[in-house]
């Protein structure tokens, strides 16, 4: 229940959003528990505007309740609205109602990770004529101003250059002015697969089964949000800063040394492999990226993990993670509008139930519905690739990713989906579309060995839908890519294709689209 123990006028109301749960939240500095309050709200709308996986919702609520409890233990006063207390209200309505009642002198919030949320807070404060102070978010290593400066005047905003500058600026994996090991990039060492024998015995990640607070959240979700997708039977994410640190220690100790080699590999019924499982803790601010980076670098300096693994891992956090955040804010709301390839298909129903005989999609989507998790290559080269080849509307595939992954927050999800995986941003992020035939999936996994389709075939009964749709994609977008220096080589093959065969591929691709659009299965 809201804490109403303080009858005196509130000076500062600190809005703490569900992904801003650092114990050293900068907004706490200078707060006086007798005059200032924290404000936190669980609103159903946040789980409904893009239907949110049960585990994702549970993660946010549980981490919020743990944070609120810890801050109360620290002596702060927390005005907390639980799920179901105000079933009809969105975030702005809930805040507006409390502003009316509390009448603080001003409201403070850390830069929200979604434009929509900032607009809602601004509207609620403007309605009550209460000033809103938006603080910079020190939970990232590159301030937004610094990113805009870096981006200013550049024709292309490529991650690699951004990442190198951050390595130098922050002194990460550097030996003086030179990159550790004499090279910036170890990608060539980091594309391994497991071969026919598979991954063998894998180190199971440290698990955090639901405690009493998480179980309480799960009960509330079952009561107030019974229609959410997914399930939470296997929920075991860290929900406190202490658990996040344990998760990091466990990763560094047991999985980091092999992370690099196998970061792109996939295997049936093996969701975690050597991945860190740290995106949720990072995105909810339970652990700081610098802590994670320093721990990885130290593991290399101590001789515990090889440089390619450590560089590959740090690149994901100091490179990709900071870069996509910069891009999200740099281009603002435009991300929602982009559809460079004019994709117009609906999202196939299989994304919501995993019912398909395509094994790669059955595995990646099935695992996602079970856990709210899939690793990077499953997101990029299975679910993302299929949507792109099919031509799914960016807004539809964005809504799916935003709701279905436990670690999804718009600043990180939107550029990854609309930019990296769908090329809807017209190449602002990636120099060319990430497209491949089913052979890529065959090389990086054992999915095709259990599939009725054959990744070598584009036509016929055993034709792999990825392969058919790949050639159709090249054909459909010839005008855009065939004469571009970065893509001409890839497109050359379709230019040379026998016209009859190409027509048969177009027809087959059209049938696949029709089948999926009317809700039938492949
Ligand atoms: P690991 O594979 O162990 O990587 C370590 C860390 O690197 C991650 O925890 C993450 O913080 C960071 N990282 C890796 N790749 C990226 C990236 N491309 N962008 C930003 N950070 C990265 N990540 C999210 O946190 N939220 C999302 O909503 C999200 N949506 C994605 C959608 C698509 C289409 C793609 C291709 C990627 C997406 N990612 C997203 C990035 C990546 O898939 C996840 O961060 C990663 O799978 C999380 O699992 P992990 O912690 O085990 O990561
Ligand atoms: Fe996926 Fe094609 Fe391989 Fe089947 S054959 S698992 S559809 S890539």
What report would you give on this structure?
The chain is mainly alpha-helical and 522 residues long. Helices cover 48% and strands 5% of the residues. The chain has 22 helices and 7 strands. It has helices spanning 45-48, 54-73, 91-102, 115-127, 144-151, 159-170, 212-224, 241-254, 256-262, 279-283, 289-301, 307-331, 350-353, 359-371, 376-390, 394-404, 410-421, 438-444, 465-476, 478-481, 488-495, 499-517; strands at residues 12-15, 37-41, 78-81, 106-110, 132-135, 174-175, 178-179. It has a 5-stranded parallel sheet, with helices on both faces. A two-stranded antiparallel ribbon has the order 6-7. Residues 1-6 have low confidence and may be disordered. The structure holds flavin-adenine dinucleotide and iron/sulfur cluster.
In short:
The chain has 522 residues and is mainly alpha-helical. The protein is built from 22 helices and 7 strands.
Beta-strand content: under 5%
Residue stretches low in confidence (pLDDT < 50, at least 5 long) are: 1-6
Structural class, by secondary structure, is mainly alpha
The mean pLDDT is 95
The helix/strand order is EEHHEHEHEHHEEHHHHHHHHHHHHHHHH
What value does the Rg take, in angstroms? Answer: 24 Å
Terminus-to-terminus distance? 49 Å
Overall spatial form: globular
| Major β-sheet annotation | 5 strands, parallel
Query: Biggest sheet, strands in spatial order?
Result: 3-2-1-4-5
The residue fraction in helices comes out at 40-55%
Would you report the number of β strands? Answer: 7
Assembly state (oligomeric): single chain
Bound molecules: flavin-adenine dinucleotide, iron/sulfur cluster
Tally the helices. 22
């Amino acid at each position: 229940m809201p804490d109403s123990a303080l009858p005196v006028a509130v000076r500062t109301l600190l809005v703490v959003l569900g992904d801003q749960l650092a114990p050293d939240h900068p907004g706490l500095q200078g707060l006086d528990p007798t005059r200032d309050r924290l404000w936190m709200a669980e609103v159903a709308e946040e789980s409904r505007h893009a239907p949110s996986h049960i585990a994702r919702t549970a993660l946010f609520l549980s981490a919020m309740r743990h944070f609120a409890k810890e801050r109360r233990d620290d002596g702060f006063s927390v005005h907390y609205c639980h799920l179901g207390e105000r079933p009809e209200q969105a975030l702005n309505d809930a805040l507006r109602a409390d502003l009316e009642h509390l009448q603080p002198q001003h409201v403070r919030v850390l830069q929200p990770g979604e434009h929509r949320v900032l607009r809602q807070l601004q509207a609620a404060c403007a309605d009550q004529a209460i000033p809103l102070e938006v603080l910079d978010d020190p939970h990232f290593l590159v301030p937004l101003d610094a990113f805009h400066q870096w981006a200013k005047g550049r024709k292309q905003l490529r991650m690699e250059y951004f990442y190198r500058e951050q390595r130098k600026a922050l002194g990460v994996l550097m030996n003086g002015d030179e990159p550790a090991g004499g090279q910036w990039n170890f990608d060539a060492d980091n594309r391994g697969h497991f071969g026919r024998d598979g991954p063998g015995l894998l180190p199971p990640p440290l698990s955090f089964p639901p405690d009493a607070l998480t179980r309480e959240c799960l009960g509330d979700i079952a009561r107030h949000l019974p229609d959410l997708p997914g399930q939470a039977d296997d929920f075991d994410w860290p929900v406190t800063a202490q658990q996040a640190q344990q998760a990091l220690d466990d990763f560094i100790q047991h999985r980091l040394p092999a992370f690099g080699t196998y970061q792109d590999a996939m295997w049936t019924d093996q969701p975690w492999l050597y991945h860190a499982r740290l995106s949720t803790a990072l995105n909810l601010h339970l652990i700081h990226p610098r802590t994670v980076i320093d721990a990885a670098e130290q593991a290399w300096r101590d001789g515990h993990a090889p440089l390619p693994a450590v560089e590959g891992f740090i690149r994901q956090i100091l490179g990709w993670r900071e870069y996509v955040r910069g891009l999200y804010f740099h281009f603002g709301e435009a991300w929602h509008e982009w559809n460079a390839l004019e994709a117009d298909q609906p999202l196939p129903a299989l994304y919501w139930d995993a019912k398909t005989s395509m094994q790669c999609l059955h595995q990646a989507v099935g695992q996602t519905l079970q856990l709210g998790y899939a690793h990077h290559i499953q997101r990029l080269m299975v679910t993302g690739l299929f949507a792109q080849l099919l031509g799914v509307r960016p807004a539809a595939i964005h809504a799916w990713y935003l709701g279905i992954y436990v670690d999804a927050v718009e600043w990180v999800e939107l550029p990854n989906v609309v930019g990296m995986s769908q090329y809807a941003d017209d190449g602002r992020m990636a120099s060319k579309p990430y497209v491949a035939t089913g052979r890529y999936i065959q090389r990086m996994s054992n999915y095709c060995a259990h599939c009725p389709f054959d990744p070598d075939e584009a036509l016929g009964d055993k034709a792999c839908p990825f392969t058919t749709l790949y050639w159709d994609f090249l054909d459909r977008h010839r005008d855009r890519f065939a004469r571009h220096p970065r893509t001409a080589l890839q497109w050359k093959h379709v230019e040379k294709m026998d016209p009859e065969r190409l027509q048969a591929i177009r027809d087959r691709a059209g049938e696949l689209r029709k089948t999926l659009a009317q809700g039938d299965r492949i």
